[in-house]
Structures
1.
Amino acid sequence: MKKISILFLAMAVSLASCKNEKKEKATETTATETAVKYVVKPEATSVKWTAYKTTEKKPVGGEFKVLRFDEKTGATPEEALNNLSFSIPVSSLFTNDATNTRDAKIKTSFFGAMLDTSILQGTIKHDNGAYTASIVMNGITSELPLEVKITEERRVVMTGVMDLKEWDALDALASLNKVCFDLHKGPDGVSKTWDDVAIEVNTFLREN
């Protein structure tokens, strides 16, 4: 009887030891998973835009060569993007124009006609599954709704359409159209520069 009791005691100790070992392994796994953080990689980021001219709405594409992010991490891609602040120097604007005159016109006659717009600033927000970019331009802060796609490879594509009226930028647009008057004429002879601008941001989230 005494031998049986000792045997049961040994089995109980063994089972308890196995349970503790499993708990320790589970805790280690959870800690490892929790430690994974995501952070936006600015050197893998591009900011492209498309404006439109003529009544036919002919696209004119360009980009900003410099985009700066404040360093921010998150346990998920959504958390890493939420409240992420950024700044874009207008001087980094580039359109690959063969005449080498378009960039200067946009910088001087459009952005230069606005208030304190040498740098575009903003914050990306994620709330209830929806993304917006709160952008400061021409001394005005306005929200830009964003469509965001995040792939399994952690590549992020953010797209939206800026309505320049939201930033009180129609006078600046008229200033640009004036210096580009003939260039923005279509077959109908009408010169037009549209007040909507498509934005596309491509970036990458690395594990930190």
Note: Helices lie at 2-35, 77-81, 102-110, 170-179.
2.
Amino acid sequence: MARTDPIWLDAQYNNRARVPEAPQILERWSNASALARAQSDCVLDIPYGTAASQTLDVFRTGAPDAPVFVFIHGGYWRALDKRDHSFVAPALVNAGAMVVVPNYALCPAASIEQITLQMAQAVAWTWRHAREHGGDPRRIVVGGHSAGGHLAAMLLNCRWPQLAPDLPGDLLRSALSISGLFELEPIRRTTFLAPDLHLTAASARRLSPALLPAPAGRLAAVVGGDESEEFLRQNRLIREAWGAAAVPVCEAVPGTNHFTVLHELADEKARLLRLARQWLGLAGQGADENNSHS
């Protein structure tokens, strides 16, 4: 069936409908995140901008000059919150990383362009303030899930000195997209998302990482092996668009759906966490960056 058929696209992209246990998974995320905040050395709700939505949480490790992992949550740019995703921090902190989890304004109150700019501002804050929390601003990796995976990929193309003159051009060298969205035209045609996202044909093009030049940095693109045809295609697409030099990792994680694939980032035995550790330059990497599965 044609990829432009809205009914087919809705079935492909409506993950809460595709995964019946999604409400229970999201509840577990919330509970695990509350526990993570209670048991971690963390500083919560730090402003990184002037808007009420522009706050972030910092999870600190005892290691000096720790690499920094900025995690951007998903929810199709219109749902969820950083507080639902604190659960990703402990395994990364235990591995020796400082973790930053930013919030952002949600559609339809904000546009995806505005959200992308907010995430650039959050990363800029991280570069300026990492040392205050034990982090090394020269080793920042951005990761994200779903819409957050889209935003992470967009940030690889950010022209940092144009955002602010104090920022270095090579501020961000590595990113990790988990179930990321790299072509937004199909999203624009969905009936369940379109009313909130207000994408036009032009803005969908501007905001599609696959239609941007390959960045100087590198992206790891990972998707759940049991996800829809479209999510699997999106993951392959960014490798095809940017090439293997910019996307050295392009993998599907067997036996995981759109939600459970994120659990792999919080599991100290999982390939995805090993990959994040490799991107962060931490010991015990155990990951082969040239491995590629689709």
Note: Strands lie at 42-47, 55-59, 66-72, 98-102, 135-145, 174-178, 218-224, 249-253.
